[in-house]
Amino acid sequence: MEHPLNILEKYFNYTKFRPLQEEIIDSVISGEDTLALMPTGGGKSLCFQVPALAKDGICIVISPLVALMKDQVTALTDKGIKAMALTSGISQDELSTKLDNCIYGKYKFLYLSPERLQQDIVQERIKQMPVNLIAVDEAHCISQWGNDFRPAYKNITLLRTLQPTVNIIALTASATPLVEEDIKKELDFISSNTFKTSFKRDNLAYMVFNEEDKLYRLETILRKNTASSIVYVRNRRSTIEVSQYLKSKNISATFYNGGLTNKEKETNYDSWMANQAQVMVATSAFGMGIDKGNVKTVVHLNLPENIESYFQEAGRAGRNGEKAFAVILCNTNDEQVLKHQFLSVLPSIDYIKTVYKKLSNYFQIAYGEFIETSFDFDFTDFCKHYKFNYTLTYNSLQTLDRVGIISLSKQFNTTIFVQFKISSGQLFRYLETHQDLALVTKSILRTYGGIFEHETKINLALVSKKTSISQSKIISVLEQLEKDDIISFKHNKTDASISFLQLREDDLAINRVAKIIRQQNELKETQVASVLEYIKNDQVCKTIQLTTYFGEKLTEKCGICSVCIKKNLNKSYKKQDIAGQILQYLKTTEANSRALFQALKIPEQQIKEAIAYLLEHSKIEITPNNNYKIKTI
After folding, report:
1. Count: domains in the chain
2. Which long-range contacts (CB under 8 A, 24 or more apart) does 321-324 make?
3. Same domain, yes or no, for 385 and 446?
4. pLDDT tens digits, 394-425
């Protein structure tokens, strides 16, 4: 067996392991069931990839994240390591061939979702594979108390019967003590072989600032720290608006959200990775699997959904070991916004049942029928068709996805359907006088048989590759052909795809998972309360607050978070003295807190406390323009 250090250097270009990696790898190679809890950026993937490469056979990796599976397969393949992922959209014949390759083709890694594991053909072939290790990524998903519980994860223990002599490594970046114990119980660990790196990040300063003008403060932060940054916002529209705002202030920025085409995502991502754009403004869809060491600042303009996701997103800053900042900007409205976004829009069991029935009807699936095909899904059209509330319906679909009834893939798709309406003879006479349309038209004819007889789905990327003509130009050609009554042309743009994972049973299907749904709703309430406690608690060091949440007890304050810095500020200013200076300034003009801070040169937080004191004692009042002025009696 090749030594792990040799493998590390040979394939990954490292000469030494990060903290705990070597101990975890030794445990796995020794055949022990192992739980590895390592923060984002801690190098979890090497903990199963290195031992799998050191031993004969193939490693089965269970992961819920299709994008991450694809990224890891690509990265391994680029290193000359044989790896594959069983994602959706694979035909039965192709699936069978791929599984045979895992048995006979000397593949080292097979990535699959827990849902895919439920297929009989997959189970039968896994029995025949020379499996050397089972890796369960994002293992917190197996726990009902995890922040992204997926019932299908509970069936992973099936691998114990398919490969009874093979050990398991479970990996996660965020697990509370309750979740940690649940993982080991559900995966049937015999002994508690747990490796847990500290959740403390010595170089990462956690900051929470209350701000009237978040964009101004964001601009200030990014001008002060000009290195690579991520700004997390709540929705797709905000990614565009905030990036445009930053550009207007001469701060280079791009954006990322689930509504972009794959090409747009790739372009924007590459721009940020190459440091051509300082700032990536993104929804929470961005970041998983990102390996960029020089991120200086991660800013949340809106409150995160839970501490687990915040810790992972914040942890993308400072991976190079240099000082970095994780900042939450909040104001008085954020608490209600957070509760509205994540609590008031939690769908009831009855609402989820209705959405599920209508979804089945929308795609014309009969009761008791199971359809393996993946459907392009126009969410807006679906909601309009049934007069559904957008947010409640989206959350219902998310719930159905989480409990394994459907698979919801949130990505932009363009679907083209074409049928020629005239005979082939008429078509070629037409092309004689329309030579500019000939190349695209002939390419489609030679690629798709039967296109004269029936409506045919066109792969735009394939035609583009064959003709070396851009996809937008091809659409223009098709639009012209339609205008000239040569073809019938349907051009559907969708922002998701849906796969049904179970046969249609309406209420029966939902009743089986109703308890889980209620439990997850209660968990969300607890998680929201934890976020609000974190932003409001200005007495306890932020690092201590976060590590305590994950069950780690620290006594030493970090000294660099917003709480620690506030306590270390110059204590010579008395609130009454600052209040007196504010009143003196307001005798001649109205002003907001920013103007007072700039004029008086006193720490901003102390300015705000003095303003609150003056408002409370009716010495000043707020104008319609959100300025302060001396209150008239």
Report:
1. 5
2. 321/203, 322/203, 322/294, 322/296, 323/203, 323/204, 323/205, 323/560, 324/203, 324/204, 324/205, 324/295, 324/296, 324/297, 324/298
3. no
4. 999 989 988 889 988 765 556 788 999 999 89
